[in-house]
Amino acid sequence: MCTYLKHDQKEYDIILQNIKENYLSQSCMPKLLLGTGLSIVYKLPGMASLFKQLSDDFIKCTDTTIVSMWESKKDDINKKGLEEGLSTIVSREQPLVDQIRKFTASFILKEENSLFNDIYNKDTGFRKLLSYLKETCSVNERILDIMTPNYDRIIETVCDCLNINVITGFEGENTCHFNQRLLKRPESLYNIRDNFFVRLFKPHGSLNWISMDQQTILTNDNMRLLDHSDDIEIITPGGSKYKDGMINAAFRCMREDFNEVLDSTKNYSLFIFGYGFNDAHFDTVLFDYFKSHNTLIVSKDIKESIIDMSIKNSKMVLFYEKGGESYIIYKCQKFKIDHNLWDINEFASVLIG
Asked: More exposed terminus of the chain, fewer Cβ within 10 Å: N or C?
């Protein structure tokens, strides 16, 4: 049973106000998980564009063994998409994984560089959300925790625009080195009480991480990154993600430390935007927290399993689109609505103003 709820109905306003108070407020400050939906907002390539670019790159590849591995996966990718199509990768195909990583890093880095001014200046719903949370947080809770499997630097760039300090776990100037203590105990280095910070966890790596002398370093020198694009540290789609995330110390610390943050006894909510729930090593942990914490999910496309979960869990709120219609699941009840609140821009406009 699905009820149609129009924006001028009193019940609609009550629901939205309750969501704002219980999922986006000082008393229940959210922890954010941001997926590829955020990259799409800023026009960075999605999986379909990446697949096309990879196909073009492999045509030019001179290593016949790697090309043969790629060709053996293309039918599955065409049928299931890049993520699932690469899920059957085995250890002997590691050279293919390495080549995909190199092609992907170079492609996304160039696209991001070309869009930098738009990312910095664009007045998006995400920018409004960050600004709102900065002004909303209490004097005793001055850190907003964000986890993203995205490689791009959208979050860091928007934070720069808003004059928000970002804790990345790296310290230094031109060449920054990873220091796990900065993630675990940021108050040991930063003046937390007088400033607002975003603590950013990137367990799949980042376009500005480079492997150098058997360690991961961070640099925002784009010329240096382009020159060393083969050495950029990211985890690509496919079945090797969990193993790759365990081998690299920075990847592993990012994942484990965010899980530790979620284990905190403090009262908080979860805000999830544009995340596809395709990472079992994250999802299993998240599903446990859905049972005990208010969770707000905003996503155009969502798996049926997550919809079913929301119908059964009164702590979950879900905004999504299906068949050209917009829906909300709130307190285990499904409503069709006349706002596209799965769109972060419209979501921020309606809920934040």
From this structure: N
- Between CA 290 and CA 294, with CA 291 as vertex, the angle to 5 degrees is 55
Question: What is the band of 146 on the pLDDT scale with cuts at 50, 70, 90?
Answer: very high
Tokens read off for 94: 């590691």
> In terms of pLDDT, which residue wins out, 265 or 143?
143
The span from the CA of 353 to the CA of 351, in Å, is 6
HEC assignment per residue over the chain: CEEEECCCCHHHHHHHHHHHHHHCCHHHCEEEEECHHHHHHCCCCCHHHHHHHHHHHHHHCCCHHHHHHHHHHHHHHHHHCHHHHCCCCCHHHHHHHHHHHHHHHHHHHHHHHHCHHHHHHCCCHHHHHHHHHHHHCCCCCCEEEEECCCCCCHHHHHHHHCCCEEECCEECCCCEEECHHHHHCHHHCCCCCCCCEEEEECCCEEEEEEEECCEEEECCCHHHHHHCHHHEEECCCCCCHHHHHHHCHHHHHHHHHHHHHHCCCCCCEEEEECCCCCCHHHHHHHHHHHCCCCEEEECCCCCHHHHHHHHHCCCEEEEEEECCEEEEEECCEEEEECCCCCCHHHHHHHHCC
CB contact at 8 A, 277 and 306: yes
Cα distance between the two ends of the chain? 31
* Residue that has been written with the tokens 């910095």 in this structure: 120
Q: How confident is the model at residue 238 (pLDDT cuts 50, 70, 90)?
A: low
pLDDT of amino acid 342: 97
Angle, CA of 102, 105 and 107, to the nearest 5°: 105
d(CA 159, CA 153): 10
Reply yes or no on whether the pLDDT at 8 is more than 90. Answer: no
The two tokens of residue 253 are 């610390």
Distance CA 119, CA 127 (A): 10
CA 36 and chain centroid, separation:
6
Residues 176, 253, 106, 148, CA torsion sign: negative
Mean pLDDT of 287-307: 94
